[in-house]
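Aim 2 progress update. The chain analyzed this quarter is reproduced below.
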Amino acid sequence: MASQMPDPDDYEWEFETRGSVGIWFMNGWQGFADEDLEAASNHYRERGTQDDIEATIAVFGDGTNLAKETQEYMGEEWSANGEYTGVDKVGFVSDGIAAMAVKSHMDIPDAEVESFDRLDTAVEWAQS
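Predicted structure tokens:
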């Protein structure tokens, strides 16, 4: 049966891999539980369970607006997603406090969760 995984080309976010690290670029996403975030969440769950992914990173761009309810939504949904995928490490990257804010809402029992201000540092951590 064909996968129903969302195609990143159809949304405002992007996906790439660097070795065994899956990276979701959330760019200027500013909504709460909108279609793009739901699609990214679905893509994360399906793509993150594949054997070539051992760690994941979400990168938030300058225009990202994370209101309190958005952080709570992400904490609930993305914690469940991280646990579902079974990855060892989950990282968040932003220039400002967005990555730290999202990390503070994560509860993934069997994974290390960290926040970073540079993607290269996050990838190095995820691959270690």
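Residues 45 and 81 are 6 Å apart (CA to CA). The chain has a mean pLDDT of 88. These observations will guide the mutagenesis experiments scheduled for the next reporting period.
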